[in-house]
Amino acid sequence: MKRKILLPFLVSLLLLLLAPAGAVESVAAPPASEQEAVVPVSQSDPEKVRTWGEQDPWGVSMSLMAMAIVFLALLVLYICFRAIGKTLGRAPAEEPRAGETPAAAAPAAAAVNNEEVMAAIGLALSQSLNVHDPESGIITLKPHSTEWNSHIDMFHTNPKA
Amino acid sequence: MNDFFVFVQQNLAEFWSYSGFANVTFGNVAMILVGLLFLFLAIKRGFEPMLLVPIGFGILVGNIPFQMGTEVGIYEEGSVLNTLYQGVKNGWYPPLIFLGIGAMTDFSALIANPKMMLVGAAAQFGIFGAYMVSLLLGFAPHEAASIAIIGGADGPTAIYLTSKLAPYMLGAIAVSAYSYMALVPVIQPPIMRLLTTKKERLIRMKPARHVRQSEKILFPIIGLVLTCFVVPSALPLLGMLFFGNLLKECGVTNRLSKTASGAMTDIVTIILGFSVGASTQATTFLTPATLKIFFLGFMAFAIATFSGVLFVKIFNLVLPKDKKLNPLIGNAGVSAVPMAARISHDVGRKYDPDNYLLMHAMGPNVAGVIGSAVAAGVLLAFLA
Questions:
Q1: pLDDT tens profile A60-74
Q2: Does residue A85 form part of some domain?
Q3: 0.95 cut: is pTM over it?
Q4: Nearest CB partner across the interface for B383, out of A29, A52, A97
Q5: What is the DSSP string of chain A?
Q6: How many domains does the structure of chain A reveal?
Q7: Cys staple from B344: which of A44, A155, B100, B361, with CB 3.0 to 4.6 Å?
Q8: How near does any CA of chain B get to the CA of A111, in Å?
Q9: B364 shares contact with chain A (CB less than 8 Å)
Q10: How many CB pairs under 8 A join A and B?
């Protein structure tokens, strides 16, 4: 496993070292003539890109601000759903929907034995996945004559009237 | 008679000049080999076949040599491939895929244990770690952002952001993102084992509480309003994700939900994968920058896994003893649904066969999808 994970890393690193260095501003953008001919144009704001490049050459400000915003967005969701979970957790059980039987709508958390549920799921999976043993596809039962089905034993070769 | 032979000869020569044999370059051959490798990995090894087969075949189509001006190339105005490519270029396909993801995803695990959202947020550090390294390697900020989003482990998000910021790198970034997503089972487990002790791997988490249907219906509505008020630039992705989820959970649009999660997602996946593959023409793909993108993509995945697992360990320091999280679920914050959650489960079961981490790991896993879309929105807001 260690070899598997190290291999792409080392190959990439080696190729990276061997690859010729690009321009400082952009190592990926194709030459202007080629760009006009075949490649779609970036929608990034050149002024913003230049400012970020100058003001934040290491990317630390961007990383700190962006991570803070990502955390803020998900933190707000966390707080909101924590409150909703607590509020609804105290509320009485939901009414079953039209067409649902009360049993189907009953909360699954109500005194469910986890081991029994797991056993039921395991059994269902086993029955669904292991339908049959793998077969070779070769018929091993060969026709075999016995006294019960043998023509020689059951019929006279020269029946008499 | 002589004129006839000259006429035939001229036409055959002209036909030859249009053929692939006359126009082939080393780059075309190399890219066709790359396409074949993708098809081999997908068909023989089963690596993300739903994506790598369309991408791999698209690479073959995009690198068949031809003479410019015949309106067959993906970058030639008016060609069929160019028409399909408009959806990639203008960012139409990724939101449609997000609609399907929303209609497929059950957010119960996250709603039942909302603190998993923070784990999903922490794993997004992979994006910004890779952003800093990309700048160090000489990429411009908008290119660095496009490369870094690979760390979100979310193909449509990577394609969406790159199509806006650095479309000329789209092929390399999409291929890199999907390749590493297929390699998640190889990349993540060693890092997870490296960062955790045996005692931590044995932590059993409490079964999640039952989530009411009303909570499931409220989640996409509140989720949309809260996240998109913070980052409106992520609206195309998050709007469609939450809309798809509402179709699934509201209980009165089953037909729409079924179409969004089934046929529509399949159609868009086929066209998106094929178009992205075809966009990897040798002139834009076979560059030193592509190698750097692959290196940075690997680094982004590794950093994201590190940060997810480390965050859970740190989070455990403040959580009560009976509510501690198993750090093996930290890796699932990188999205890559549901592969990353399965890794958490499989690694956990190696140390305790009766410890079922799958549903616990689905929490940070789906939070990672939201987190990476928010991160893409932030980068877009700063740079576009």
A1: 999 999 999 999 999
A2: yes
A3: no
A4: A52
A5: -HHHHHHHHHHHHHHHHHSPP--SS-SSPPPHHHHHHHSPPP-S-HHHHHHHHHH-TTSHHHHHHHHHHHHHHHHHHHHHHHHHHHHHHHSPPPPPPTT--HHHHS-TTTT--HHHHHHHHHHHHHHHH-SS----S---------TTT-HHHHS-SS---
A6: 1
A7: B361
A8: 11
A9: no
A10: 228
